[in-house]
Design goal:
The protein is mainly beta. Helix content is 12%, strand content 41%. Strands 2, 5, 6, 8, 9 and 10 form a six-stranded mixed beta sheet that branches. Helix 2 packs across helix 4.
Length: 482
């Protein structure tokens, strides 16, 4: 019997040994998820402003730490957005490192950049003007009329406020040659709209040029308190995209208010609140319908609330106000850690009867770069409730007007200084803006002017400095660190 049990034990041991010696089933290597790319819109204007915004997903997860390729070559995209001044077709794909040393490639998406429209119904006829803001009685706006690139001296008909008019001419020099071109002067304030017809069928009626005639003279440049210095105070440009009917917007409104009240941060940034969530019913929305429609899309805003710092860094809302405040502070700190490459000063006049503010903005370069300057009118103390909050009853820093360029165009990234050429270190260039604050609900006493200077970085722009005035009248000199 003992031998029988011993035999059974030996068989069991052999069975156990056989089982324990069996090779384990290997764990299969992970399979990468699919990387998908999409873009909206897929057709943009090649004007340096219109943006195509990409969304890249690894499986169901949106990812941003990807490499972008355009027409087969690696390219840098700021915040996965693309803009260009060169018309053409651009084919993009993206790669993502899903685990160390291994990447996956996305599908290809196409962006078509259409040539920016020329001023005029027909591509051959154009009209420009050297000044869109003149002083009553003394100022002059001189037009240049071209057809197929050649200056037109006769055979055209000018219209002002839809009525045929005859303007005097003056001699101007264009590309080294002298031509007779029409000019406009006025003894009456107001806004005058011009277009021209030529060869019967050619006209610029759909793209008129507006000239503002103001009572006040364009102010002189502000005195520079330290002409030899280029060590400027640096302020980040905070652009808050929001709306009174946005239920999640208080998640960023309250942290922004806390940061603005913090002695360590309030002087580090300029705050602009852009109410484009549902602007038609928002009392703090931009007054110009074009600005209501284009501000968000131009800066690639796809969700609310969103904050952009210097156009580049993006802060989205989370449920934790403390985290939102921390992210905002970090973005501002990263911005002001870079020294200002340009300084800003401004002088203003305010025609309260006609509600026109005219500003001469001076930009002084620290670094030799191509710079652009912009001006926005913001308003405080706008009454109105806020969805998602029972305590927010009024709104500050709301962007009400975006100043147009001297040619009447709207460029949300600013207008070229020094004729679009690089400024040299220490050079000062001026730009004159005028805004007719025609909406009577806007209280002039509650308004300020925001100025910002940008430079291009690849296919996008970045803000190198910003500033805000005390009101619509008080001059703002250059601010230096020392």
């Amino acid at each position: 019997m003992k031998k029988f049990f011993s035999l059974i034990a030996m068989i069991a041991a052999v069975a156990v040994m056989g089982f324990s010696c069996k090779e384990p089933t290997p764990t299969p290597d992970p399979t990468p998820e699919k990387l998908t790319a999409s873009v909206s819109p897929s057709e943009i204007t090649a004007d340096g402003q219109s943006k195509a915004v990409f969304t890249v997903k690894y499986g169901d997860k949106a990812v941003s730490n990807v490499k972008a390729y355009v027409n087969g070559a690696e390219t840098a995209l700021s915040a996965l957005t693309f803009t260009t001044k060169t018309a053409g077709t651009y084919k993009f794909y993206f790669t993502y490192e899903w685990k160390t040393g291994e990447t996956v490639k996305s599908n290809e998406v196409t962006v078509t950049a259409k040539a920016a429209e020329q001023s005029g119904d027909a591509s051959g006829l154009t009209m420009t003007v050297d000044n869109t803001i003149i002083q009553v009685g003394t100022g002059r706006a001189t037009f240049t009329i071209k057809f197929n690139g050649k200056v037109v001296e006769s055979g055209y008909t000018m219209y002002v406020n839809d009525a045929k008019t005859t303007l005097p001419t003056t001699t101007v020099t264009i590309d080294g040659k002298s031509y007779k071109q029409p000019y406009f002067e006025s003894k009456t304030t107001g806004t005058y709209s011009f277009y021209v017809t030529y060869n019967i069928t050619e006209n610029t009626k759909k793209n008129p040029i507006s000239v503002q005639v103001n009572n006040d003279a364009i102010p002189d440049r502000a005195e520079d308190p330290n002409p030899s210095s280029t060590s400027f105070k640096r302020r980040a440009m905070v652009m808050q995209f929001t709306g009174t009917e946005c239920p999640n917007c208080p998640y960023l409104i309250e942290p922004l208010e806390n940061m603005a009240a913090d002695a360590n941060y309030k002087d580090k940034f300029v705050w602009t609140a852009i109410h484009t969530y549902n602007p038609t019913s928002d009392p703090a929305a931009p007054c110009n319908s074009a600005d209501q429609q284009k501000l968000g899309s131009t800066f690639g805003i796809s969700g609310y609330p969103t904050v952009l710092v210097d156009i580049g860094a993006k802060v989205m809302a989370y449920s934790s106000p403390a985290l939102n405040l921390s992210n905002l502070q970090k973005a501002v700190d990263n911005s002001v850690a870079n020294p200002a490459s340009a300084g800003i000063s401004a002088t203003m006049t305010l025609d309260e009867n006609n509600r026109v503010v005219t500003a001469r903005v001076s930009v002084k370069a620290k670094d030799a770069k191509v710079y652009n300057v912009g001006m926005w009118v913001i308003e405080d103390k706008i009454q109105g409730g806020q969805a998602g909050s029972s305590t927010i009853k009024s709104h500050d820093n709301a962007v009400r007007y975006v100043a147009r360029g001297t040619d009447g165009s709207a460029n949300y990234f600013g207008y070229p200084l020094n004729e679009g050429k690089a400024m040299s270190a220490g050079q000062v260039c001026d730009y004159v803006f005028a805004v007719n604050i025609s909406n009577q609900s806007v209280r002039l006493a509650n308004c300020q002017l925001v100025f910002f200077v940008t430079t291009s970085v690849g296919n996008s722009y970045t803000v190198v400095n910003s500033a805000v005035t005390k009101d619509l009248k008080t001059a703002m000199p250059f601010e230096y660190n020392n």
